[in-house]
């Protein structure tokens, strides 16, 4: 599939010298959902803001649909919808008037059939004449999405779409996102919630201190999540791991006098029985054994924690 969004060597240094993005490279395919995971201050909003033309990059390029976000700003921007995290709506304005106003901002003719189809998709058609202040929190968030869709963007950015909302509303938002994907919209969402990325993303990107640490298919990450660890504490310290145990790719923690064996939790064979047999043959005596499951959360926390 073709890239709809291409980011090359993108860096951002804010005035005052703070380096918010460091040489980010990312290609996003048309029709995919990418979740950008990262702790506060990682650079997610900076990245989105550069692509949307709200912040200037210090170096590097970004193109949307082949249009450079700086040189071809208008064309690039016309392909992008942005749903901000904060709900900023005119309280006395009706839903439909809000949408008409947004169309005007993009210089789009008011197309009643289009507005109707957007509102129907977001289950807001019945509320078209309601003032925004009369809507529930979930409806307001859907109005923000409707406004972002008025100019029929091909790429939609959702900045923390479910920050601070209850479980039911989060699921409702996820359903909306899935429907948009079915309509062919490419979606990039930022989130702090790993379960959100698990629930809806095709790919997950992890960003920390301005660096994109990994971008991977969610299913592959889930396989990694399925890893388990067995920690075998030994009676005696070990100088070297015996050659006979090399096929288990064991790690050894001298501090804890512990051998660490990682294996696929869902694999057909865990290899534990043969490992025990081979440990016995090698004359290694065990003091204690523990198993633990590593989760996507572990992987994420391990990646983003500042090791400095
Ligand atoms: N205009 C600015 N001037 C200076 N520094 C800024 C500016 N905007 C953001 N930053 C800094 O850049 C870093 C990245 O901020 P950014 O908002 O992109 O992070 P984020 O990943 O979106 O965080 P959050 O999850 O909290 O929204 C932060 O340390 C922030 O303080």
From TrEMBL:
Q: Which UniProt keywords apply?
A: ATP-binding, Nucleotide-binding, Transport
Family the UniProt entry places it in: Belongs to the ABC transporter superfamily.
From what organism does this protein derive? Hoeflea algicola
Q: Which PANTHER family match?
A: ABC TRANSPORTER ATP-BINDING PROTEIN (PTHR42711:SF10)
Coiled-coil-forming residues are none
Q: Give the protein's recorded name.
A: ABC transporter ATP-binding protein
Origin organism lineage: Bacteria, Pseudomonadati, Pseudomonadota, Alphaproteobacteria, Hyphomicrobiales
Q: Which SUPFAM superfamilies match?
A: P-loop containing nucleoside triphosphate hydrolases (SSF52540)
Q: Name one GO molecular function term.
A: ATP binding
Cell inner membrane as UniProt keyword? no
**CDD domains from the entry?**
ABC_DR_subfamily_A
Could you tell me which residue ranges the ABC transporter domain spans?
Answer: 5-234
Could you tell me the superkingdom of the organism this chain comes from? Bacteria
Entry-linked InterPro entries: AAA+_ATPase, ABC_transporter-like_ATP-bd, ABC_transporter-like_CS, ABC_transporter_ATP-binding, P-loop_NTPase
Q: Which Pfam families match?
A: ABC_tran
């Amino acid at each position: 599939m073709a890239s709809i969004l291409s980011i090359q060597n993108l860096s951002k240094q804010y005035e005052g010298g703070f380096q918010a993005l460091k040489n980010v490279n990312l290609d996003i395919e048309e029709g995919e959902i990418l979740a950008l995971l990262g702790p506060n201050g990682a650079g997610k909003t900076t990245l989105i803001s550069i692509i949307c033309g709200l912040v200037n990059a210090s170096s590097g390029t970004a193109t949307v649909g082949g249009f450079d976000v700086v040189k071809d700003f208008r064309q690039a921007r016309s392909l992008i919808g942005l749903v901000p995290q904060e709900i900023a709506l005119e309280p006395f304005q009706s839903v439909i008037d809000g949408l008409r106003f947004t169309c005007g901002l993009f210089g789009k003719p008011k197309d009643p059939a289009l507005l109707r189809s957007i509102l129907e998709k977001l289950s807001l058609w019945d509320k078209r004449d309601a003032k925004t202040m009369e809507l529930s929190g979930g409806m307001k968030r859907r109005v923000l999405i409707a406004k972002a869709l008025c100019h029929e963007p091909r790429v939609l950015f959702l900045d923390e779409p479910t920050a601070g909302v209850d479980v039911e509303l989060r699921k409702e938002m996820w359903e909306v996102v899935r429907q948009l994907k079915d309509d062919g919209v490419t979606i990039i969402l930022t989130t702090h919630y790993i379960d959100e990325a698990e629930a809806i993303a095709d790919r997950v990107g992890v960003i920390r201190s301005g660096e994109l640490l990994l971008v991977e298919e969610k299913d592959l990450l889930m396989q990694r999540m399925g890893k388990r660890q067995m920690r075998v504490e030994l009676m005696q310290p070990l100088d070297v791991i015996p050659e006979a145990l090399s096929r288990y790719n064991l790690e050894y923690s001298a501090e804890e006098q512990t051998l660490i064996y990682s294996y696929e939790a869902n694999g057909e064979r865990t290899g534990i029985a043969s490992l025990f047999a081979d440990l016995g043959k090698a004359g290694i005596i065990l003091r204690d054994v523990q198993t633990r499951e590593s989760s996507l959360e572990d992987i994420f926390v391990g990646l983003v924690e500042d090791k400095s």
